[in-house]
Amino acid sequence: MDWKSLQDLLSGVNKYSTAFGRIWLSVVFVFRVMVFVVAAERVWSDDQGHFDCNTLQPGCTNVCYDYFFPISHVRLWALQLIFITCPSFMVVLHVAYREERERKYRAKYGETARLYDNTGQKHGGLWWTYLLSLFIKTAVEVAFLYLLHLIYDSFRLPRRVRCDIKPCPNEVDCFISRPTEKTVFTYFMVGASVLCVILNLCEIFYLIAIRVVNLKQRGSVHTLPKKIPA
Predict the structure, then answer these.
(1) How confident is the model at residue 143, as a pLDDT?
(2) Closest to 63 in 3D by CA, of 146, 148, 182, 174
(3) Alpha-carbon torsion 219, 224, 225, 226, what sign?
(4) Is the pTM of this model over 0.85?
(5) pLDDT at 228
(6) Nearest to 175 by CA among 55, 42, 50
């Protein structure tokens, strides 16, 4: 997959993000995408080829590998990275929709007419779109963390697993290649995912807090007593 193209697309989101959003994007590409592309894919490249079972029964090794590794870690992480970055495009598309409305409005009423003060400013519908994208990203992160733990029953990879699935003649021992290195990468990717969840939650609370403060300020302005002329 061309991760560089994805980075170029998401870089445009930075213009509309808060400080937490910019940190989130940096964490995703520095600590997740780069580690995934440079190291993790290579660590798991020989996964099935070096999954050895102490039996010569044809098909036993393949069946046991499929049972213990129904989906590869790297493919699961690739799906996770795609799904967590897609909600950000909701914001870009909403801004593009605003810009198109602004263009049509100026074409109709003149170049000096303005429908929006700033098409990228987070107010009105764009604020809700941005907030919804954060909730979706957080939900996807948590769902994939739960799925990873559910599939493998732990974030730690064992050195040996025991398998008695047919066509294995009896219970056989199967050995995973480089389990310690894979465990280190798994914990690193899980830690980066948890950090992204924390950043998303911080940004959600920040946006809501700013919105509440602005609403209170507007309310106080409207309730100011009018001066009675002497």
Answers:
(1) 94
(2) 174
(3) negative
(4) no
(5) 44
(6) 50
